[in-house]
Write a structure and sequence with these properties.
It contains five helices and no strands. The chain is mainly α. The chain has one domain: 10k-s Protein, Hypothetical Protein A, Chain A, CATH 1.10.890. Helix 3 packs across helix 4 and helix 4 crosses helix 5. The two termini are about 20 Å apart.
Length: about 120
């Protein structure tokens, strides 16, 4: 339950910061996330010249959002996807939605995972 609160606070704060001026931009922007994703793509493809720091930041950031928000905004836990599957889902989403790259990275990751792992509708009885 505590993770739901943390994830909610992160999403609210990133939405708040996205409405402010450039000096108050979110910690990680979508454009920065895409830059890191491109390095991860190179690593996955087996290329020799890879910025491993950016690759690690991409995998870590996506994994952190997944760990913090699973069950609150998306429901991937029952299928237990691997780290590779999770990052592939986010990468695919980012490539399909370049018009959103100016948004906060955390929002893009949550939206990608929500699309891939929707939560079942709950009965309101």
């Amino acid at each position: 339950m505590r993770w739901h609160l943390v994830c909610g606070i992160v999403l609210v704060c990133s939405g708040f910061f996205s409405t402010m001026n450039v000096e108050s931009a979110p910690f990680t922007s979508g454009n920065e996330l895409v830059d890191h994703m491109k390095e991860n793509d190179k690593a996955v493809a087996g290329q020799k010249e890879v910025d491993w720091l950016k690759t690690g930041l991409y995998i870590g950031f996506v994994g952190g959002v997944y760990d913090a928000c699973d069950g609150a905004f998306f429901c991937a836990s029952p299928s237990e996807p691997t780290q590779g599957e999770i990052t592939a889902v986010v990468s695919k989403y980012l490539k399909e939605h370049p018009e959103r790259w100016n948004e906060p990275a955390v929002v893009l990751i949550v939206d990608a995972l929500k699309a891939a792992y929707p939560c079942p509708q709950q009965n309101n009885q």
